[in-house]
Design brief:
68% of the residues lie in helices and 0% in strands. The protein is mainly α. This is Auxin efflux carrier family protein.
Length: 447
C-alpha cells in the first residue's frame, strides 16, 4: 500500500491529465484565440458519437467479455439502476428542502438522479490506467473500459424511457385552455425566441450526446403528452390527436375492433408505449455494445474476429487505432462546452447548490455503503478492485450531458439544464479527486 502522499497523487494526477486536455479545448475555442471554431467541435462530437466511442466499446468489450464474464458482471447494469433510484430519492429530498419553482420539481429529481455513466468514467479509467504502476494491474485499461462499456445499454434505456417522460413539460404551465389560445401562442413564441437565443450558446452541450437532435423531434415531444393523457377522466376525454396516434402506428389495412371494450388504463399505457422513443435506443454506442457482447460470448466467432492470424486482423487493428482518439476528443469537446458558460437559469441558487451537493458529495458516500453491502452479500467479483472502482464511479460523476439534449428535445428547462451541467462539471474536478482518493484508500486498506 502506498503512503498518504502517493495515494493523493494517484487520485489527483489522472484528473489533472484530463483537465489539461479539456483546458486545451477551452483555450483553442476562446474568442480571443479562435483557432478552433465551435463548428469544428460540433463535428468532433459527432465523430465521437458515431465512430470513436463505438470502436472503443467494440474492441475492448468484445475481447474482455465471455459467457462466464457476462454472468459475473451482472451487478454492473444493476448498479446503474440502483444509483439512479437512490439519486431519485436524493433529488426528491432536494426538491422538498430547497423548494424550487413548481415547474422544476421533476427536473430537480432527474438532474440529481441520472449520472454520466459513459464519457466521464471512460476518461477517468483511461487516465488512471495509463500509468504502468497503476493500482489495478497490467490489464487495467482493457478491463476497465469493458466494465464501463457493459453499462451503456441500460443507461440509454433509462434515458429514453424514464428520463424522457420525466422531462415532459408540466401540464399546468403549458396547457391553459382553449379560451386562452392567444396566451399559448405567445408562450410558444417566447420558447421559439429562447431557442434562437440559446442556439449559439448550447450547441456543443446538445451535440456532445445527441448529434442531429433536430431530426428527432416529433409532434408531441414538446407537449405534456402523458399528463394530458392520464388527466383525462374517461376514454371520451382523451383528445382526438392522442387517440389517433394508435391508429397511425398500426399496420396498413388493420382496423380497430370497436366491439371489444378496451380498459381505459390499458389504452392509455398503449398510447404511452407508442410515444416512447424506443427506436432511438439503438444508437451507435449501444449497437457496438450489443455486437461486442454477441461476438464475445460466442467463442468461435470471437476467435475469427480477434485471433492473431484472423483475416479480420487488419480491420480490428484499424478500429483499435481509431478508438485511441476517443478520450482526447471527449475532453476537448467538454473544454469547448465549458467555454460556453452557464445559461440563464430560473431554478434558483439554493436548488442549484442542493443538486450539486446531493449529486457530487452525498451520493458518493451512499455509493460506498452500497458497494460495501454488495461485497458483504457476495454480489461482486472477488478480489477485483478495478470492478469495484468502476462501480463506484457510477456514483461520483456529474449529471449526464444527455439530459441537456433531452431538455432541448422536450423544450423544457433548457437553460436550467445547461447551468446545472456547467457548475457540476466545474465542481466535479474537485469532488472526483477527493472521492477517488478516499475510495482508493478504503479499498486497499480493507481488501
Amino acid at each position: 500500500m502506498n503512503s498518504g502522499g502517493e495515494d493523493i497523487l494517484d487520485a489527483v494526477l489522472p484528473i489533472l491529465k484530463l483537465l489539461c486536455i479539456a483546458g486545451m479545448g477551452f483555450i483553442l475555442s476562446h474568442p480571443k484565440i479562435d483557432m478552433v471554431p465551435k463548428s469544428t467541435y460540433k463535428i468532433l462530437s459527432g465523430l465521437v458519437f458515431v465512430l470513436f466511442l463505438p470502436c472503443l466499446i467494440f474492441i475492448y468489450l468484445a475481447q474482455s467479455i465471455c459467457l462466464e464474464n457476462f454472468v459475473l458482471w451482472w451487478f454492473i447494469p444493476v448498479n446503474v439502476v440502483v444509483s439512479t433510484a437512490i439519486g431519485c430519492i436524493l433529488g426528491l429530498l432536494v426538491a422538498l428542502i430547497c423548494r424550487p419553482p413548481p415547474q422544476f420539481f421533476r427536473f430537480t429529481i432527474i438532474m440529481t438522479a441520472f449520472g454520466n455513466t459513459g464519457y466521464i468514467p471512460l476518461a477517468v479509467v483511461s487516465s488512471f490506467c495509463r500509468n504502468t504502476d497503476n493500482p489495478f494491474g497490467t490489464d487495467c485499461s482493457a478491463n476497465g473500459v469493458a466494465y464501463v462499456s457493459f453499462s451503456q445499454w441500460v443507461s440509454v434505456v433509462l434515458a429514453y424511457t424514464l428520463v424522457y417522460h420525466m422531462m415532459e413539460p408540466p401540464l399546468e404551465y403549458y396547457e391553459i385552455g382553449e379560451e386562452e389560445e392567444g396566451v399559448v401562442e405567445e408562450i410558444n413564441e417566447i420558447v421559439q425566441e429562447e431557442h434562437v437565443d440559446n442556439c449559439q450558446s448550447t450547441p456543443l452541450l446538445v451535440e456532445a450526446e445527441w448529434p442531429g437532435l433536430e431530426d428527432k423531434e416529433t409532434e408531441h415531444c414538446k407537449t405534456p403528452f402523458i399528463a394530458r393523457l392520464f388527466n383525462s377522466i374517461s376514454l371520451t376525454n382523451i383528445p382526438d390527436d392522442l387517440d389517433s396516434i394508435v391508429e397511425e402506428n398500426k399496420p396498413n389495412g388493420s382496423k380497430s375492433i370497436k366491439c371489444l371494450a378496451e380498459p381505459k388504463m390499458v389504452k392509455k399505457m398503449r398510447i404511452v408505449a407508442v410515444n416512447t422513443p424506443l427506436r432511438h435506443i439503438l444508437q451507435p454506442p449501444v449497437f457496438a455494445s450489443v455486437l461486442a457482447i454477441l461476438v464475445g460470448i460466442i467463442p468461435r466467432l470471437k476467435s475469427i474476429v480477434f485471433s492473431s492470424d484472423s483475416p479480420l486482423e487488419v480491420l480490428t487493428d484499424s478500429l483499435d487505432i481509431i478508438s485511441e482518439a476517443t478520450v482526447p476528443s471527449i475532453m476537448l469537446v467538454i473544454g469547448g462546452m465549458l467555454l460556453e458558460g452557464p445559461n440563464e437559469s430560473k431554478l434558483g441558487t439554493r436548488t442549484t447548490v442542493g443538486i450539486i451537493i446531493a449529486r457530487l458529495l452525498v451520493l458518493p458516500l451512499i455509493g460506498i455503503g452500497v458497494l460495501y453491502l454488495a461485497d458483504k452479500w457476495h454480489f461482486l467479483i472477488q478480489d477485483d478492485q478495478l470492478y469495484r472502482f468502476v462501480l463506484f464511479l457510477q456514483y461520483t460523476t456529474p449529471s449526464a450531458i444527455l439530459l441537456a439534449a433531452i431538455a432541448s428535445l422536450r423544450g423544457y428547462a433548457v437553460g436550467e439544464a445547461s447551468a446545472i451541467l456547467f457548475w457540476q462539471h466545474v465542481f466535479a474536478m474537485f469532488s472526483l479527486a477527493l472521492y477517488l482518493f478516499i475510495y482508493i484508500k478504503l479499498s486497499f486498506v480493507y481488501s
